[in-house]
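Here is the promised in-class demo. Please do not try to memorize the tokens; focus on the logic of going from shape to residues.
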């Protein structure tokens, strides 16, 4: 019985407090509307990737990924210069038997493709 009395009192206080009611119902709706604008209006992300010492076949496979454009460079120096000038978003270079990704924005699709190709190389 005591539990019901306390619950009844809390509910009456809640109904009387208009600010709390507004925050309970309007704030989540506002946040959901804002999140829908963020996720629905964001365009696609295109990534420009430089490759250094990567085989032509691998470059061709990477270029087949929809939102990725591959730029081949003869040396890491030129690729880093392009990265500094913001012409590219990432650099892929081959070092021994591994491919090293210098940290920048990389799409999940690109990561999956690299993993798949890395497994083929082993």
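The designed amino acids, position by position:
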């Amino acid at each position: 019985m005591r539990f019901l009395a306390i619950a009844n009192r809390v509910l009456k206080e809640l109904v009387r407090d208009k600010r709390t009611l507004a925050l309970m119902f309007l704030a989540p709706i506002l946040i959901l509307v804002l999140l829908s604008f963020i996720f629905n209006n964001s365009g696609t992300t295109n990534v420009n990737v430089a490759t250094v010492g990567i085989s032509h076949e691998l470059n061709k496979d990477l270029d087949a990924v929809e939102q990725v454009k591959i730029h081949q460079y003869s040396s890491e120096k030129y690729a880093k210069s392009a990265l500094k000038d913001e012409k590219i978003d990432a650099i892929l270079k081959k070092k021994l038997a591994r491919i090293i990704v210098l940290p920048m924005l990389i799409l999940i699709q690109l990561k999956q493709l690299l993993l798949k190709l890395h497994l083929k190389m082993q």
